[in-house]
Design brief:
Helix content is 24%, strand content 29%. Strands 6, 7, 8, 11, 12 and 13 form a 6-stranded antiparallel β-sheet that branches. Strand 19 and strand 20 form a beta hairpin. It starts with a strand and ends with a strand. The relative contact order is 0.13.
Length: 338
């Protein structure tokens, strides 16, 4: 295949900047390249791994003995538009933040709270990304994919994607089967109403904001995130490293009585992982070359770690400290190339 590269370091393709060499790497800029790439992989009996921006992926020291496909498909397409709602399709290689701007700037609500989340549109349904009360499942209509088993392109309806908290068929039961080519969403005219999530509400009150239009909320969310989360282009990090802890309703009163912070997020009782890490006394601490961010304790920053083993050691120390103090076992959010 044209433009295929060999022996490319995964550390160069992912924002945590760890990982050995991938045997082959191919950028996908056109749909026909998807068919060609999977044909090449099948002919040479190679496993395939799909990357977007690499902002939620961690490489292993031994690298990857297959073909890494970097999704660079671009473009937005209006499917339908009325005075009340917009159905729009985004190619999977577009940045999710650009998609949020695209919809918010036109006055449609549904994605503005997901602004400034690093990563591509294609990655959004994989983990059902979300923030400040909005998730991609709330607006998703369908996902365009290349099915490597059926060897054809098709659309998967949102209700068939198995979207849950940071999960979908794409990272569980059908992991590795699909190459996502596009996502289609339906957003509506309107706006979010206060009170907002804690950090966003605090920003709104501090700035005296009274305009809650989608574009205004987008700007507010972007400012809040910029104050807490490192720019992966400048600082080696995978963004939110641990999933929040979800607890049953029957336990909420008991846990709140113990002073544990719990909030409602899309109908679930959530304990912020960053709060747990901070309360365990690890905020700002350096562990094996990985630093727990002093701005948001759910973020791990690679300051001097050189190997996956360094990250694994730091991760285990954090998990052990939180388990010892609270009894909860944190789960890693970024996926791994292995």
């Amino acid at each position: 295949m044209k433009s295929m590269q060999e022996n490319v370091l995964i550390s160069k393709l992912t924002t945590m900047r760890l990982g050995g060499a991938a045997k082959y790497v191919q950028e996908i800029t056109a749909l026909e390249q998807v068919d060609e790439a999977y044909g090449f992989a099948q002919k040479n009996q190679l496993p395939v791994y799909v990357l977007g921006q690499g902002s939620n992926v961690i490489g292993h020291d031994e690298g990857f003995s297959g073909l890494v496909l970097v999704n660079k498909l671009k473009g937005f397409e209006t499917v339908s538009e009325t005075s009340d709602e917009l159905v729009v399709r985004a190619s999977a290689g577009e940045m999710l933040d650009d998609f949020c701007e695209y919809t918010a700037s036109r006055g449609y609500t549904g994605m503005e709270a997901m602004s400034a989340i690093p990563g591509t549109c294609g990655a959004a349904p994989v983990q059902n990304v979300g923030a400040y009360g909005q998730e991609i499942k709330d607006v998703l209509v369908e996902v365009g994919v290349y099915d490597s088993l059926q060897v054809r392109h098709l659309q998967i309806r949102a209700e068939d994607c198995g979207l849950g908290y940071r999960s979908s068929i794409f990272n569980t039961t059908e992991f590795g089967r699909y190459f996502i080519t596009s996502i289609t969403v339906k957003v509506r005219k309107g706006q979010l109403k206060p009170p907002f999530y804690v950090s966003l509400q605090a920003f709104v009150e501090r700035e005296g904001l009274t305009d809650f239009s989608p574009l205004s909320i987008r700007h507010a969310v972007s400012a809040v995130r910029a104050g807490k989360l490192p720019n992966p282009k400048e600082i080696a990090s995978s963004g939110s490293f641990f999933k929040n802890v979800v607890v049953p309703s029957a336990k909420v009163a008991e846990l709140k009585a113990k002073g544990i912070r719990i909030w409602q997020e899309n109908g679930k009782n959530v304990i912020p992982s960053g709060w747990l890490v901070e309360q365990a006394g690890l905020k700002g601490k350096e562990l094996h070359g990985m630093r727990v961010s002093d701005k948001a304790a759910l973020i791990l920053i690679n300051e001097s770690a050189k190997s996956y083993a360094d990250l694994a050691a730091a991760r285990q120390e954090i998990i052990n400290a939180v388990r010892e103090k609270f009894g909860f076992t944190l789960e890693q959010e970024p996926v791994e190339i292995a």
